[in-house]
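The records we work with from here on pair a chain with its fold. Each token is a code from a learned vocabulary of local backbone shapes. A record is reproduced here so that you can trace the correspondence yourselves:

_____
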Amino acid sequence: MATESAAPSPFEDQVLAHLRNAEAAYHAEQRERARELDELEATRAALAESQTHARLLTAELDAQRWNAERERQRVECLKQAMREIHGALFHGDVYTLILRACLTISGATRGIYVTCTRPDGPLRVRAHIDIPAIQGAAPPPMVAQLCRDVLAKNDTIVCSEADTAARLSGDEPQGLRFRNCVAAPVVLLANLDGVVLAADKMDGEFDDRDIEALLSVGDQATVAVRNRHLERELQTAYVHTVTMLADAVEAKDPYTHGHCEMASRYARLVASRLGLSEHDQALVCYSALLHDVGKIGVSDGVLNKPGPLLPEEVELMRAHVRVGYDLLNHVPALRDVADVVLRHHEHYDGGGYPDGMRGEDIPMPARIVSVADAYCAMITRRSYKDAYPEAAARAELRRCAGTQFDPVVVDAFLAILDTPEALDGDSDDFAECGLLPGFEAMRAQASPV
């Protein structure tokens, strides 16, 4: 007969119920803790995300501040560069200043400015900084090809070190190996002017801002470069005027053929030896070329008279300095020259004309022209005399030093006579004279106060 299990007692039922309740409470507590841990992890993740976002915002803000400061510096550099470029209206190298502006605002350390008026036209180097090239000549082959590519695309080209290395033939100098570079077309007054190449940026690679900055230089420099073109045209016009005046004098007095050019060459060399400024050297050079232009107003009979002049003829001859002054003083770029022409027959001891000035009161350029004119007159044949031997002419200068001539100028003149430059027979004296001295005064009048 099977034994039947005894039914749980009321006490056992209470214990089991208590255990079940405790187990349920335990599981509930575990679930709550898991939920709290999940919330904590979520909070930590949100905090980490917030911190990451904050760092990103801070980095972005710092980058914006850095870019803003960089752009401010670009603008300041560009403003300064444009002031220098516009200041070069009548002197200075505009192309070099433009190139320097491009390097400064792009952070490049070296570069080259190549001009070309049409895509298939000849390339000419106008300025170069730390890149091997010859001013006025064609650029190196690698640079030339890069410029041709820019002109063909009419767009900028950015090259890495590998790109530039691939363009090299192997024969180029080390100076043409760039770590990086950017070549941009320069457009002035809506016309193609050439290409600027900026190389070896100080930090990092060239970016879009650098390219935009390079392209903006063309817009900013338009006026300055156009002014340089106008200056050259005006300079050419004035030089043609000078040429016409000098030719007119020689046409009246065949004995003076070549005299003015010779006097000008000697006078320029003396001015250089005495350390005169570039302005005064040009002033001396042009004044010597035109010192006798007033003889246009002297009759041929007096100019070419074979014998001694009568007193009234002497006065007519002496009047040529005032006639020359009046002629040249009406040409703005030659007004300084006019003053020297008026004074070139004054004597150091006060015995000259037209005003009997003496010593240091006579402008130095006039004292130089006086010596050069006298020497050249002595060694050339005139209607009233034969040419002096050079030794006799030199002795005469020494004899008259301190009376007719400034002794310092005589010493300098005698010192340059046997130099290779003095013996140079190049007839391009106008090019040797440089910029007309009156252009400086014209620029000062045109500049705003």
